[in-house]
Structures are given as C-alpha cells and as structure tokens.
Amino acid sequence: MGGGLSETGVLGDMGLFGSNFNSVENEIEILKSKRLLSNVINHYNLTTTYSRKGNVKESDVYTNRFLNVNVLKNDSIAEFNNSITFYVKEVSDSLFGLRLQTDSKWLTKEYGEIIKIEDQSLIFSPLPYNTVDSNNGDDQELSDLKISIRPNELVVQDYHSRLNVNTSGKRGSVVNLSITDVVGERAEDVLNQLIEEYNKDAINDKNIVALNTAEFIEERLNDITKDLDSVETGIESFKTNKGLTDIGVETSLDLQKVNEIESELLKVETQLSIGRSLKEFMITDIEKSVTTSGLGLNEPQLIALINNYNEVLTTYQRIGQTSTQESPVMVRLSNELSSLKRGIFSSLDSYINGLKVEQNNLLRKSNQINANISQVPNNEKTSRSVERNREVVEAIYLLLREKQETTAISLAVTAPPKAKIVDSGYAPDTPVSPKPKIILLAALVLGVLIPLGLVYLKQIFYNKIESRKDLERNLPQVSILGEVPKLESDAKDRIIPNDRSVLAESFRIIRTNLQYKLGALNHDDTKVVLVTSTVKGEGKTTTAFNLASTFAYSGKKVLLIGGDIRNPQLHRFFDASLKRKKGVTEYLVNSDLKLEDLVVPVDDNSNLHMLLSGSIPPNPAELWMQSRTKDMIEEAKGMYDLVIIDSAPTIVVTDTFLINKFADVTVYVTRANHTDRGLLEFISDTIKDGKLTNVAAVINSVKLTNFGYGNKYGYSYSADKKTFMEKLKAKLNF
C-alpha cells in the first residue's frame, strides 16, 4: 500500500519559508532527515513489527493484535546490531505462549513479566483485539504472531528509503509527501506524525533564544539572590554591631534621652544642693526649725525626721519659756532633739550619697549617648553605602524577575505551526505496488526475453559441445556414427543380454552405422576398430566395451584389446583381481606368449573376449613401436571376426597415433557438456595431418532433448519403463 499527503503542507504560508525556492529545498531536506524519522519511529514503536502467517505469505499486523511488546528503557534498541525474532500465541487473559524458534517448545508466560531475550529486557502487555479477520471475512484465528525487533538505525534507513518528498510546482511552496508500506494505516500515521514532528522541531528552533534567555536569567537570579542575601546579611550585621535600627530615629531618641537625662541631672543636682544646704543649716543653726516645704525633697523618711524634729524643737522652745534648762522636761527634750538631729544627719548623708550615685549614673548615660550622637555622621555614611549597594542589587533582582516572567509567558504562548496541513495522510483503496497489469506485462516480456537471452549467452560463453550439430558444424568431414544418451545416476553403463534400454538401442544404431563404414572397405580381412578420445573422461573405454558387446551379441566373435596401457580401465567391468592379469604389455615384451594364453572370456557373452592391458610399463610408446604390435594385431585378426582396441587419449600421449596404422576405422568419442569446442579444432587438425585415418565420431552422454534426427522419440519405444514405486523398491532392495 502507499500512503501520501496530497499537497501536504503550505510550508511557505505567510512567509514562513521565506521568499526564495532554496528555503523550500532546505525544509524538504529537514522533512527527509533521519532525526525526524527516528522521532516518528520511537513515537509509534515501529522498531517492533508483528506479522501473522497466512495461507500463502506472512501479513503485517499493525493494530489488530492481542499484545504489545516494549523494550525497557535501560536496554536501548540501538545497542544491538542484529534483529530479534520470536513467536507468541494467546493462552488466556493473563497468560500467553512464547517460543524463540519455530521448532522450539512453547513456554507459558504472564503479562507484565520482564523477559530476557538475547540480552534485551522485554515486557509484554495485553491489548483488546478482534478475533475475526475482517479482511478475509472468515473465522480464522488471529492470535498467533511472529514478532521481530530491529535496531533503530536499520528501521530509520528502511523508512528513509521509502519516503518521498517533493514540491508540487517548480516555484511553489506546497510540498507532497508519500511513503510506500504494506499497511496503509501505518503509512498514514507515519506521514501525519512526521509533519507533527516537523512543526515541533520548528517551534523548538524558535524557542531556542527564549530558552537560552530563561537559562541565563535563572543563572543570574541565583547569583543575584546570593549577592542580595550577602548585602542583607551585611546590613543586619552592621546594625546589630552598632545597635541600630534607624539612624534618624535612633538619633532623635538619643537627643530626647540626653534632654531627659539633663533634666534628671538638674533635679538630682538640685536635690543634692538642697541636701547639702540643709545639712549646713542644721549644723550652724541647731535651735532653728527646719522647713521642708518648697525644698522639693524626695526622701519621705528624711522629711518625717525633720518634721518630727521641728515639732520637738517647737515644744522645747515653748516649755523653755517657762522652765529652766535643767528641768527634767527640758533635759529630755534636749536629748530627744540631739537624737533626732543625729538621725537627720545620718539620713542626709545617705540621701546625699544616693544623689551622688544617681548623678554619676546620669552623667555616664549622658556621656554614652553623646558619644553615640557624635558617631552619627560616620554611621550614616556607612549605612548609606550599604543601603545603596542593597538598592542596586535589589533593582537588578527585580529586573531579572520581571524578565523571567516575560520569558515564561513567551514560552507558554503556543506558536503557530510552521507547516499548514492541506490534506492529512491517506492510503488509496488500491495498492500502489505491485500493479497486476505491469506484473503480467513484465512476466510476458521476461518470459520471452530471458530464455532468448539465456540461449544467446549460452551460445556465446558456453564452450562445451551439446549435440551432433556441434560436431557437424565444426567437423564437417567426419561422419557421425551415433549418440549415446546420458544415463541416470542409478542406471548401469554396461549392456547386458536382451537389453532393451535406451543405452542398448543407441549402441545398436552405432553398430549398424559402423557396419556400413566397415563394409565400404576394400578388403575382406578381419576389421580392426580403434576407439579413442581427446582427453580422459569422455567415455571411450565404456564406448569400446559396449560396442564390442553389441557386435558380440549379433553373433560375431569379437576381441576387445586394452590398448591404454598407461591408464588401464577395462578391468573395472569385471573382477578387480583382473587388474593384475597379464595382457598387452606382457605380450609385447615376451615373444613366447600367445593371445590364447592371455585373452579373458566374458561370462555373459561367449562371443566376446578381452585382452587386458596388463602391467603399466615405463616406456609405453617404445613398446607400441616394436614389431610385436603387428604380430598381436595379425594374430587377433586370425582368431576373431572383429578386433576393437581401446586406445589412449590423443592429446595426452602419442600411443594412439602409433597404432592407428593398424586400424581400419577410428571411432573418436566425444562427450556432451564435457568436451570443449576448442578441442574439435585439434581433432580436425589431427585428421588433416593424417595422424588418424577413416575417422567416425560418437557423441557420448547426450541429453535426450538434444538427440538429433528424432532419436529421442524411438530408442525405448518397446522398453518397459519402471514406475516410481518400482524404482524406489529396487533402491531399497525390496
């Protein structure tokens, strides 16, 4: 599915993008940034994907699922590079099944349990969901889920590669956004959230200055608060040390106290003067009465004594007018006056001493207050300096507080979005990919072009022969005896009596064609057929053996000679012990040996005898050059109807060229999908140089589809083809 924002945002509305096209291009790059995509992916937890296996393929599940998986924050998804995959199924409202591999055992887990999977801590929470697939309209169970958690970076790269952002016009400021996704709803959410993240990012950019200002103000407020506290503490310490609250008020109070003290001091000095005068008066004028009224004495006891003294003195003077000094009354009154006078003197002394003490206290207070008053100018100067510092710091503090409130209001005000949404993201009803018509057309075109291309490339780069056409094209002078089909891996490569297999039929055709070629010779002697190939592995030994067997089954007495004395292979068709049996090498070395002493009959074919290669000599070429070679051929011709020689490969050694002069026909074996086309040129040059005579080719291991002249239709028309069960039973030895 594809999701898109058709005319997604008028990004240049009201000059928000600027007046030039470069601004739009810059904003497009921001919209395509992996940073914004990462925010979107984290918002919807898109690193975790859910899928459900269907009849044909797995389908992504976006919303309709029974649980949700979250990676714990302390285990960041970006910390690992490999994806995590596991499987869950619903068990009950509080339990779910979990398995880490498709073939592992289900484990029962509880929702809310922290589960460790590949060093990642996961927590599972249940979700409500519909148990019926509304898309299919059937009752298919939707509980089993496959969950994959991928690294954040890989998911961001995935969505970034599928996101397309472009302008609707060359000079326009309207931008189209689209993204391809298998789930249309998810594509819509991604595009809508991308615009929201873009607007948030733009608002954050606008608030950077305000945020920096707020941070600066906050730091300065902290410093100013400390300074203000320091100034306030200094003022407090200064006033505490000086005993001040308000210098003006304190000074007024001190002046008032001085006046009060002066007044008190005046009263004390007056009382002190009165006391002293009264004492002098009583010392000099003892018989005069002492008046206390108007003196302002503040000592009640002294006043009482003086009043008592005056009363006794008055009585003494009145009685003295009528009585003598010696009268008892006068004596008693005189003694009483003396006693009262002593009491008055004593009281006056105490009174005067008390007034002196009070006078000294008042003088001390007066001096202290006067000293404080004398310090007022200096204290006022210091106080003004401290107050001035406090006012400056306080003014800065109030200014910063005001700016802080202004900045807070600026941050609190919601700025208008930078991108105006014209159409929200929507997914079309039909998939944007794949398109059935395009797929069918592409399949048709590829169905034609790919086979043609493969055939063309194969013709250019594949240098192996495949059919008789390759030989006819490169060796037009060489007749082709036939083709040997490619055998199945479990098929036998040896012809047996009454064999009706494709292999047997192909060699019967080769035998027939070879008989025509042998019949065209100008002599009636026993014919000698030399079988060779260019390189090892082309099947010349197998061809020679089966060709000899086919002629022998037709009634001819055939001798098969192992002419490849460098790498003997004929013994593999029989008992391995025959590898050590004497053969060609011993015949060529020992002139006393006869063929009849060395030939080996074939058990299931009485007309076929074999002369094995014998021991591997150190000088094969020199042995073939001896006269015993001719003797061996002549002796064989005298004993058999047909002599077939399995010779060595021509491109490797010279043995074949040495004995080719004894051959009537050279059967040159090639192998499909093995023999290089370049080797055909070697064969052609060898024939042109006369090293090989009367050459006829056989193509071995040809696929049935490459058989020429319709042979693929008739080789086994009468053969009983085994069924699959028969082949299986044969393989299992039932």
TrEMBL record:
Domain Tyrosine-protein kinase G-rich, chain residue ranges per copy: 386-459
EC code: 2.7.10.2
Catalytic reactions of this protein: L-tyrosyl-[protein] + ATP = O-phospho-L-tyrosyl-[protein] + ADP + H(+)
UniProt cross-references to InterPro entries, sorted A to Z: AAA_dom (IPR025669), Bact_polysacc_biosynth/exp (IPR050445), GNVR (IPR032807), P-loop_NTPase (IPR027417), Wzc-like_C (IPR005702)
Transmembrane segments: 438-457
GO molecular function terms listed in the Swiss-Prot or TrEMBL record: ATP binding; non-membrane spanning protein tyrosine kinase activity
AAA domain: residues covered: 527-678
Superkingdom classification of source: Bacteria
Record-level GO cellular component terms: plasma membrane
Keywords: ATP-binding, Kinase, Membrane, Nucleotide-binding, Transferase, Transmembrane, Transmembrane helix, Tyrosine-protein kinase
UniProt record similarity statement: Belongs to the CpsD/CapB family.
Protein name according to UniProt: non-specific protein-tyrosine kinase
